[in-house]
Design a protein that fits this description.
Length: 260
Protein backbone atom coordinates (compact mmCIF):
# COMPACT_ATOMS: atom_id res chain seq x y z
CA UNK A 1 0.00 0.00 0.00
CA UNK A 2 1.25 3.50 -0.82
CA UNK A 3 2.23 5.61 2.19
CA UNK A 4 -0.40 8.04 3.44
CA UNK A 5 2.07 10.86 2.90
CA UNK A 6 5.24 10.78 0.83
CA UNK A 7 7.55 13.77 0.57
CA UNK A 8 9.88 13.37 -2.38
CA UNK A 9 12.85 15.70 -2.46
CA UNK A 10 10.77 18.60 -1.23
CA UNK A 11 12.30 22.07 -1.04
CA UNK A 12 10.61 25.38 -0.21
CA UNK A 13 12.07 28.71 -1.18
CA UNK A 14 10.67 32.11 -0.32
CA UNK A 15 12.03 35.21 -1.99
CA UNK A 16 15.57 35.51 -0.66
CA UNK A 17 15.26 32.61 1.77
CA UNK A 18 15.38 28.84 1.44
CA UNK A 19 13.35 27.35 4.27
CA UNK A 20 13.52 23.63 3.47
CA UNK A 21 15.82 21.57 1.28
CA UNK A 22 15.58 18.00 0.03
CA UNK A 23 13.07 16.50 2.42
CA UNK A 24 12.29 12.89 1.61
CA UNK A 25 10.00 11.04 4.00
CA UNK A 26 7.39 8.27 3.79
CA UNK A 27 4.68 8.23 6.42
CA UNK A 28 2.71 4.97 6.41
CA UNK A 29 -1.03 5.09 7.03
CA UNK A 30 -1.96 4.92 10.71
CA UNK A 31 1.35 6.21 12.02
CA UNK A 32 1.69 8.91 14.68
CA UNK A 33 4.73 10.89 13.60
CA UNK A 34 6.17 13.97 15.27
CA UNK A 35 8.38 16.62 13.78
CA UNK A 36 10.72 18.52 16.08
CA UNK A 37 13.21 21.25 15.28
CA UNK A 38 14.22 24.73 16.40
CA UNK A 39 11.95 27.72 15.91
CA UNK A 40 11.92 28.93 12.31
CA UNK A 41 13.28 25.70 10.83
CA UNK A 42 10.25 25.16 8.61
CA UNK A 43 7.90 22.88 10.53
CA UNK A 44 4.77 24.91 9.76
CA UNK A 45 5.94 25.34 6.18
CA UNK A 46 6.11 21.56 5.85
CA UNK A 47 2.61 21.11 7.25
CA UNK A 48 1.25 23.87 5.01
CA UNK A 49 2.57 22.04 1.97
CA UNK A 50 1.19 18.70 3.20
CA UNK A 51 -2.19 20.36 3.65
CA UNK A 52 -1.91 21.67 0.10
CA UNK A 53 -2.04 25.32 1.17
CA UNK A 54 1.29 26.00 -0.49
CA UNK A 55 3.31 24.22 -3.15
CA UNK A 56 6.84 22.85 -2.88
CA UNK A 57 9.39 24.84 -4.88
CA UNK A 58 11.02 21.56 -5.80
CA UNK A 59 10.03 17.93 -5.46
CA UNK A 60 6.56 16.57 -4.87
CA UNK A 61 4.15 15.41 -2.20
CA UNK A 62 2.10 12.28 -2.72
CA UNK A 63 -1.00 11.42 -0.76
CA UNK A 64 -1.76 7.70 -0.90
CA UNK A 65 0.35 7.50 -4.04
CA UNK A 66 -1.22 10.45 -5.86
CA UNK A 67 0.61 13.69 -6.38
CA UNK A 68 -0.98 16.48 -4.41
CA UNK A 69 -2.07 19.25 -6.76
CA UNK A 70 -4.55 21.31 -4.72
CA UNK A 71 -5.92 21.25 -1.20
CA UNK A 72 -5.37 17.93 0.57
CA UNK A 73 -9.00 16.94 1.11
CA UNK A 74 -8.05 13.82 3.03
CA UNK A 75 -6.48 15.87 5.82
CA UNK A 76 -7.68 18.04 8.68
CA UNK A 77 -5.34 20.76 9.81
CA UNK A 78 -5.10 22.15 13.33
CA UNK A 79 -3.25 25.43 12.82
CA UNK A 80 -0.53 26.81 15.04
CA UNK A 81 -2.52 30.01 15.45
CA UNK A 82 -6.00 29.84 16.84
CA UNK A 83 -8.63 29.50 14.13
CA UNK A 84 -12.04 29.43 15.83
CA UNK A 85 -14.67 31.81 14.51
CA UNK A 86 -15.31 34.25 17.36
CA UNK A 87 -18.87 35.00 16.24
CA UNK A 88 -19.92 31.37 16.27
CA UNK A 89 -20.75 29.21 19.28
CA UNK A 90 -18.90 26.07 20.31
CA UNK A 91 -21.55 23.95 18.60
CA UNK A 92 -21.41 26.00 15.40
CA UNK A 93 -17.62 25.97 15.34
CA UNK A 94 -17.52 22.21 15.78
CA UNK A 95 -20.16 21.68 13.14
CA UNK A 96 -18.38 23.91 10.64
CA UNK A 97 -16.49 21.15 8.85
CA UNK A 98 -19.71 19.24 8.30
CA UNK A 99 -21.45 22.39 7.06
CA UNK A 100 -18.65 22.97 4.53
CA UNK A 101 -19.19 19.43 3.27
CA UNK A 102 -22.89 20.12 2.84
CA UNK A 103 -23.90 18.00 5.82
CA UNK A 104 -26.60 19.76 7.78
CA UNK A 105 -29.80 18.89 9.57
CA UNK A 106 -30.43 16.56 12.45
CA UNK A 107 -27.70 13.98 11.76
CA UNK A 108 -25.04 16.71 11.68
CA UNK A 109 -26.40 18.28 14.88
CA UNK A 110 -26.33 14.92 16.64
CA UNK A 111 -22.80 14.32 15.51
CA UNK A 112 -21.75 17.74 16.81
CA UNK A 113 -23.42 16.98 20.15
CA UNK A 114 -21.54 13.69 20.38
CA UNK A 115 -18.24 15.47 19.78
CA UNK A 116 -19.05 18.21 22.29
CA UNK A 117 -19.49 15.43 24.81
CA UNK A 118 -16.40 13.56 23.70
CA UNK A 119 -14.15 16.57 24.23
CA UNK A 120 -15.71 17.34 27.61
CA UNK A 121 -17.59 20.52 26.68
CA UNK A 122 -21.11 19.54 27.76
CA UNK A 123 -22.76 22.68 29.03
CA UNK A 124 -20.69 24.95 26.76
CA UNK A 125 -22.34 24.25 23.41
CA UNK A 126 -23.88 27.71 23.29
CA UNK A 127 -20.79 29.55 24.57
CA UNK A 128 -18.58 31.69 22.36
CA UNK A 129 -14.80 31.19 22.11
CA UNK A 130 -14.07 34.25 24.28
CA UNK A 131 -16.00 32.63 27.11
CA UNK A 132 -13.73 29.58 27.16
CA UNK A 133 -10.32 28.87 28.67
CA UNK A 134 -7.34 28.22 26.38
CA UNK A 135 -7.59 24.48 27.00
CA UNK A 136 -11.30 24.47 26.18
CA UNK A 137 -10.68 26.34 22.94
CA UNK A 138 -8.11 23.72 21.99
CA UNK A 139 -10.74 21.05 22.58
CA UNK A 140 -13.08 22.83 20.20
CA UNK A 141 -10.30 22.87 17.59
CA UNK A 142 -9.68 19.18 18.17
CA UNK A 143 -13.35 18.31 17.71
CA UNK A 144 -13.43 20.51 14.59
CA UNK A 145 -10.59 18.48 13.14
CA UNK A 146 -11.82 15.02 14.03
CA UNK A 147 -15.56 15.38 13.39
CA UNK A 148 -15.05 15.22 9.63
CA UNK A 149 -13.38 11.80 10.00
CA UNK A 150 -10.28 12.75 8.02
CA UNK A 151 -7.81 10.05 7.03
CA UNK A 152 -4.97 12.21 8.31
CA UNK A 153 -4.66 14.92 10.93
CA UNK A 154 -1.97 17.60 10.78
CA UNK A 155 -1.37 19.35 14.10
CA UNK A 156 0.95 22.32 14.54
CA UNK A 157 2.08 22.79 18.15
CA UNK A 158 -1.48 22.35 19.32
CA UNK A 159 -0.74 22.43 23.04
CA UNK A 160 2.18 24.84 23.20
CA UNK A 161 0.29 27.60 24.99
CA UNK A 162 -1.26 25.41 27.68
CA UNK A 163 -0.22 24.93 31.28
CA UNK A 164 1.48 21.66 32.07
CA UNK A 165 -1.55 19.90 33.57
CA UNK A 166 -4.01 20.88 30.87
CA UNK A 167 -1.41 19.85 28.39
CA UNK A 168 -1.09 16.38 29.86
CA UNK A 169 -4.86 15.95 29.69
CA UNK A 170 -4.99 17.08 26.09
CA UNK A 171 -2.15 14.75 25.16
CA UNK A 172 -4.04 11.82 26.69
CA UNK A 173 -7.14 12.90 24.82
CA UNK A 174 -5.37 13.03 21.50
CA UNK A 175 -3.99 9.54 22.06
CA UNK A 176 -7.47 8.31 22.96
CA UNK A 177 -8.86 9.79 19.74
CA UNK A 178 -6.09 8.34 17.62
CA UNK A 179 -5.81 4.86 19.15
CA UNK A 180 -7.54 2.32 16.96
CA UNK A 181 -8.67 5.02 14.52
CA UNK A 182 -6.21 4.03 11.78
CA UNK A 183 -5.63 7.73 11.13
CA UNK A 184 -2.26 9.14 10.23
CA UNK A 185 -1.12 11.96 12.48
CA UNK A 186 1.66 14.45 11.77
CA UNK A 187 2.33 16.34 14.96
CA UNK A 188 4.65 19.34 15.11
CA UNK A 189 6.12 20.36 18.44
CA UNK A 190 9.06 22.14 20.04
CA UNK A 191 8.83 19.79 22.95
CA UNK A 192 10.86 16.62 22.59
CA UNK A 193 9.26 14.99 25.63
CA UNK A 194 5.84 15.51 24.09
CA UNK A 195 7.04 14.13 20.77
CA UNK A 196 8.43 10.95 22.32
CA UNK A 197 5.47 10.36 24.65
CA UNK A 198 2.93 10.47 21.85
CA UNK A 199 4.62 9.16 18.73
CA UNK A 200 5.59 6.04 16.84
CA UNK A 201 8.35 7.99 15.19
CA UNK A 202 10.17 11.30 15.71
CA UNK A 203 11.77 13.26 12.88
CA UNK A 204 14.36 15.94 13.66
CA UNK A 205 14.84 18.95 11.38
CA UNK A 206 18.01 21.02 11.34
CA UNK A 207 18.18 24.76 11.99
CA UNK A 208 17.42 26.98 8.99
CA UNK A 209 18.19 28.18 6.39
CA UNK A 210 17.75 25.17 4.09
CA UNK A 211 16.63 22.87 6.90
CA UNK A 212 16.81 19.18 6.23
CA UNK A 213 16.02 15.99 8.07
CA UNK A 214 18.91 15.06 10.32
CA UNK A 215 17.39 12.16 12.21
CA UNK A 216 14.54 9.71 12.28
CA UNK A 217 13.83 7.72 15.42
CA UNK A 218 11.41 4.88 16.01
CA UNK A 219 9.78 5.14 19.45
CA UNK A 220 9.43 1.57 20.62
CA UNK A 221 7.65 2.31 23.91
CA UNK A 222 4.68 -0.02 24.42
CA UNK A 223 1.11 1.24 24.11
CA UNK A 224 -1.17 2.18 25.73
CA UNK A 225 1.18 4.68 27.34
CA UNK A 226 0.61 6.06 30.82
CA UNK A 227 1.67 9.61 29.95
CA UNK A 228 1.82 10.76 33.54
CA UNK A 229 4.65 8.34 34.38
CA UNK A 230 6.27 7.66 31.04
CA UNK A 231 9.01 10.28 31.29
CA UNK A 232 10.87 8.43 34.02
CA UNK A 233 10.94 5.06 32.26
CA UNK A 234 14.48 3.98 31.37
CA UNK A 235 13.67 3.47 27.67
CA UNK A 236 12.10 6.92 27.49
CA UNK A 237 15.19 8.51 29.01
CA UNK A 238 17.41 6.59 26.59
CA UNK A 239 15.41 7.77 23.57
CA UNK A 240 15.36 11.32 24.90
CA UNK A 241 19.14 11.36 25.25
CA UNK A 242 19.67 9.97 21.76
CA UNK A 243 17.32 12.40 20.03
CA UNK A 244 18.40 15.37 22.11
CA UNK A 245 22.00 14.78 21.09
CA UNK A 246 20.83 15.53 17.51
CA UNK A 247 18.47 18.32 18.37
CA UNK A 248 20.63 20.15 20.89
CA UNK A 249 23.19 21.33 18.34
CA UNK A 250 20.45 22.63 16.04
CA UNK A 251 18.75 24.53 18.83
CA UNK A 252 22.08 26.16 19.72
CA UNK A 253 22.77 27.01 16.07
CA UNK A 254 19.37 28.58 15.66
CA UNK A 255 19.89 30.55 18.87
CA UNK A 256 23.27 31.85 17.65
CA UNK A 257 21.87 32.80 14.23
CA UNK A 258 18.96 34.66 15.71
CA UNK A 259 21.34 36.60 17.93
CA UNK A 260 23.66 37.45 15.04
N1 LIG B 1 5.33 33.29 3.45
C1 LIG B 1 6.61 33.40 3.80
N2 LIG B 1 7.43 34.31 3.18
C2 LIG B 1 8.72 34.41 3.52
N3 LIG B 1 9.33 33.66 4.46
C3 LIG B 1 8.58 32.75 5.10
C4 LIG B 1 7.18 32.58 4.81
N4 LIG B 1 6.71 31.60 5.61
C5 LIG B 1 7.75 31.18 6.36
N5 LIG B 1 8.87 31.87 6.06
C6 LIG B 1 10.19 31.67 6.67
O1 LIG B 1 10.53 30.30 6.57
C7 LIG B 1 11.13 29.85 7.77
C8 LIG B 1 10.34 28.71 8.34
O2 LIG B 1 9.11 29.17 8.87
P1 LIG B 1 8.10 28.24 9.64
O3 LIG B 1 6.96 29.09 10.09
O4 LIG B 1 7.79 27.07 8.82
O5 LIG B 1 8.99 27.79 10.90
P2 LIG B 1 8.57 26.89 12.15
O6 LIG B 1 9.58 25.79 12.23
O7 LIG B 1 7.15 26.52 12.07
O8 LIG B 1 8.82 27.89 13.37
P3 LIG B 1 8.07 27.96 14.80
O9 LIG B 1 8.58 26.78 15.57
O10 LIG B 1 8.55 29.25 15.40
O11 LIG B 1 6.59 27.91 14.57
C9 LIG B 1 11.21 31.06 8.68
O12 LIG B 1 12.51 31.61 8.58
C10 LIG B 1 10.19 32.02 8.14
O13 LIG B 1 10.57 33.34 8.36
MG1 LIG C 1 5.51 26.97 13.20
Amino acid sequence: MAPAIALRGVAKRFPGYTALEDITLDIPAGRFLSIVGPSGCGKSTLLNMTAGLSRPSEGAIEIFGEELAGINRRASYMFQQEALLPWKTVRENIQLGLTFRGREGRAAAEQAAAWIHRVGLDGFAASYPYQLSGGMRKRVSMAQCWIVEPEMVLMDEPFAALDVHTRLRMQSEILALWTGSGKTVVFVTHDLEEAISLSDEVVVLSAGPASGMIGRYAVDLPRPRPLIDIKTEPRFVELYRAIWSDLRGEVLKSYERNRA
